[in-house]
Amino acid sequence: xxxxxxxxxxxxxxxxxxxxxxxxxxxxxxxxxxxxxxxxxxxxxxxxxxxxxxxxxxxxxxxxxxxxxxxxxxxxxxxxxxxxxxxxxxxxxxxxxxxxxxxxxxxxxxxxxxxxxxxxxxxxxxxxxxxxxxxxxxxxxxxxxxxxxxxxxxxxxxxxxxxxxxxxxxxxxxxxxxxxxxxxxxxxxxxxxxxxxxxxxxxxxxxxxxxxxxxxxxxxxxxxxxxxxxxxxxxxxxxxxxxxxxxxxxxxxxxxxxxxxxxxxxxxxxxxxxxxxxxxxxxxxxxxxxxxxxxxxxxxxxxxxxxxxxxxxxxxxxxxxxxxxxxxxxxxxxxxxxxxxxxxxxxxxxxxxxxxxxxxxxxxxxxxxxxxxxxxxxxxxxxxxxxxxxxxxxxxxxxxxxxxxxxxxxxxxxxxxxxxxxxxxxxxxxxxxxx
Length: 435
Fold this sequence. Notes:
Blueprint: H1 9-21, E1 26-31, E2 37-39, E3 42-43, H2 50-56, E4 64-67, E5 78-82, H3 87-92, H4 99-106, E6 110-113, H5 117-127, E7 130-133, H6 148-159, E8 164-167, H7 169-176, H8 181-204, H9 211-224, E9 229-230, E10 235-238, E11 259-264, E12 266-268, E13 271-272, E14 275-280, H10 287-303, H11 313-330, H12 336-340, E15 380-383, E16 386-389, E17 394-397, E18 400-403, E19 410-411, H13 420-431
Parallel strand pairs: 1-7, 5-6, 7-8
Antiparallel strand pairs: 1-4, 2-3, 4-5, 9-12, 10-11, 11-14, 12-13, 15-18, 16-17, 18-19
């Protein structure tokens, strides 16, 4: 791993919090992610299962974590199983974690090799009455491919049909939504690296560069600052491409008088940043671009302070929708009378702003969370209003990352330039004004 190891107190605390939510006489099993085949004998880069990482910090494949707080065998109440590297693996891929390294990272004292797991785990499951399993329960995730936790759950159902099965994700959702200071520090480091990449972009962008060249500049800055890489596929969208919400081809040329929408974020210690900025390719906004830009920025300035404890995301989004209506009327995109007579279930502003404003951020760019729970202190949200006008080749989205507190929200991205004047000033300082 490139990043500095996180304080193991984070994972010790996370396990304690999870255990307090378990039913008596229960065992919980968490499997690592698979190594995903790419082609031939190669694999995609490994990304650890968020639940297992959250509870242990162990960041390699072929890992299993077991929690059994009521076990009569005291030394079996927390166990990790890790890969024992063969001589061939050690030569070709490295030996991976030693048992002592796994103890230091996770705070789990009892470490076995994975090839020792079957008899150990079988005994523990037979002592328990209930088994917690960790399946992917993100409500927007659909995949025809089963992951390791899903395959493991099928094996458990077949081998132990008389045990009562429970779901770990409802507990994890409650816990992972509220970030500890160590987690906020990791997210802040991801944001810091992302800000450095944006500074590099401001120095680099000018008419004639390609979207993929801009992506390369971002990637360069991420890797040289010890990020895992991108927290998600970066969007580098010039002109009308910016009106495609999940545009990731990044193949077009950046042209004079166009805007460039950049949606990207570094991943540090598996924690994500999520930033969006929209900049003028030639270093200066046109009057129309500036009017739309300022409308989006005003919406962000209105929305971010509303991320306070007790508010529901549904209430929050409705309030921002009303504000956006007034901005779109001011831009001449909506008619006041039409808005007054609109179907409340189909608000007209969604023609120009069709996605939500905020989502949870943490061990995923769309972090595991219950979107129906009221906002609480310790949560981290994005705030990303936008206006898309394809017929004018204008797509503007601005996005900051906000920490909810018991007092005022904290903008973790506050040091990254967002004001139109600051963007223009920096771009012109680096490369001069373009005609």
